[in-house]
Structure formats: C-alpha cells, structure tokens
Amino acid sequence: MVTKKQAALRHINAAILLFHAKEYECAITLIGAAEDLIGDVDSVHLWEVLKNERPDGHSEKEWTTILNMTRDWLKHATAQSGEAREITQFEAMIMIIRGIYKFTARYNKATRDMEHFYEWCRREGYTAPNQQSLVA
Fold first, then answer.
1. C-alpha distances in Å from residue 6, one per residue of 10, 37, 83, 106
2. Listed residue (99, 101, 81, 97) closest to 89, CA to CA
3. pTM, two decimal places
4. N or C: which terminal CB in the chain sees fewer CB atoms within 10 Å?
C-alpha cells in the first residue's frame, strides 16, 4: 500500500535523478504527476506565484496553458502541439522547483534530495541566495 504523499515524494525524488541524468522530458512528466497527486494547497507556493505573474493580454486560462505547455505536450497526443519540441534544462528545473514547493507547502517537509536540488539551483543562480532551506 502506498499513500498519495509517498507516491508524490517518490515521483519528486525520481524527477530530480532524471533531471541530473539530463532526461528532462521524464523529469517533467513525473513532477507533473506529483503536482497532481499533491492537489490544492492553501499556502502560497511557486505555482501560485507564476500564475500571478500573468502578462497583460492573457487570460488566466491562456497563461495556465502556457505554463503547462510542455507538461501537457508530454501527456497528450494532439496534432496542434506538433511532433517535436525542445525541452530545456531551465524549463525542467522550474517544473521541479514548482513541484517541490507545492510538496513542502502541503506537508511542511523536504527530503535530502529536494534540499540538494535546491542547493544546486542556488549555486546555478536560479534561486534566492539568502534562502537557506525549503522548509521555514
């Protein structure tokens, strides 16, 4: 027997391993599944911040579609999405951080792998240098 929390945690940790193996499409697919398992959370996390940074001229639905474009392209066989897509390290990193933040917002817990990934992001200049941990 496995709980949704355990499954989400395993998905996140596997996504981090796949990210470091440069298998970005697999990492994005797993982290997207983890986000779905976690469900809605009450506190603010990266997904909410990204949604609130919607550019002028885009509806909320259009902006959400843009933010999830690669994740959805990996999940669904739709002709309008095209047969090929470039998936970058940056895009995969954003998706993983998004999933990690949602997990920590829901469960107030981070794993060693999550913390190491966050440290890697900080060293690469992707996150705030003064935030030392994922869990407050």
1. 6, 10, 34, 13
2. 97
3. 0.79
4. N
Q: Is 87 exposed, middle or buried (0-12, 13-18, 19+ CB in 10 A)?
A: middle
Q: Cα(124)–Cα(71) distance, rounded to whole angstroms?
A: 23
Question: CB of 22 within 8 A of CB of 93?
Answer: no
Q: Which two tokens stand for residue 115?
A: 């913390």
> How many structural domains is the chain composed of?
1
Residue 80 within any structural domain of the chain: yes
Instruction: Look at residue 131 and tell me if it is in a domain.
Output: no
Range of the domain at 25: 4-123
Q: What angle do CA 72, 76, 79 make, to 5 degrees?
A: 105
Residue type, 57: G
Encode pLDDT of 103-129 as tens digits: 998 999 999 999 999 899 888 887 655
